[in-house]
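Hey L., structure's done. Input below.
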Amino acid sequence: MLTQIKGLHHVTAMARDAALNNDFFTRVLGLRRVKQTVNFDEPSVYHLYYGDAAGSPGTIMTHFPFPHIARGRPGTGEVGTTAFAVPRGSLGYWQQRLAAARVGDLEVTESFGETRLGFRAPEGDALALVEVEDDARTPWVGNGVGEAEAIRGVHSASLRVRDGGASEELLRFMGYDAAARAGGVRRLVRPEGNGADLIDIEVLPEVGRADLAGAGSVHHIAFAVADRAAQLAVRAALLDTGYQVTPVIDRDYFWAIYFRTPGGVLFEIATNEPGFDRDEDSRHLGETLRLPRQHEHLRATLERTLQPLDVSGEAA
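Output:
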């Protein structure tokens, strides 16, 4: 069993409208945009990161806004719902705030003894806010959201699969323990993790495969390790177990490896180092366009063609 993985690092989804995406995650959910950069493989497209003040692993959701893609089709082989942790007693505030912003599919439910508010982002992302007690993570406070209500970070993510056995076996190998079952959902927890410690497995044997290329679909889910040495140990163990794992890829703010799970979900293992302040002051994260070295020569073109993002009023 692996011991290096310490919970989630980030979740990355597809989008269509960069400005709409930016406004929703900053102005409605109150997260900080910690980085605006571009897709490494398609530099004409933004890669936008949202999280806490420092962009701490376990607080991050990111998006690739491709301007002409259609809405994704839900199904199996994908991440279903990404849930964020909020303080106990704050869901009434959030229900009013999201309703005022005309957010769709608002629903309060109880699951695993927790109260949660489910909803959909404007482009279809399945999201939830879950009330938790004593989450020690320090939130980003701004955009009209106070400290008593602000999102602390990622709470959990669900995997929608047709057969949950192989996915559970993989997660146990990755250091997760079985925690509970409720309504056909299996919950696993990473003990002593980084706060983003929970994975829920939804077994849906009659549901077809998801279309992962559309807006609102999750492209991949990333798990956190401390550094490159830990990542290489995880990679070697996965290769020994028979998984097809990519070489280590430099993503500027972390190093990454990827592999496809038996259930079809794309997993990433990402390092906590070097972090989002490697190329800009922590007081000004996400305020200007940062480019990978190999795309810096495109700056003039990208600054002219990328959709403008309204950054006014986003500071704490």
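The chain has one domain: 8-305. Residues 228-241 form the longest helix (14 residues).

-- N.
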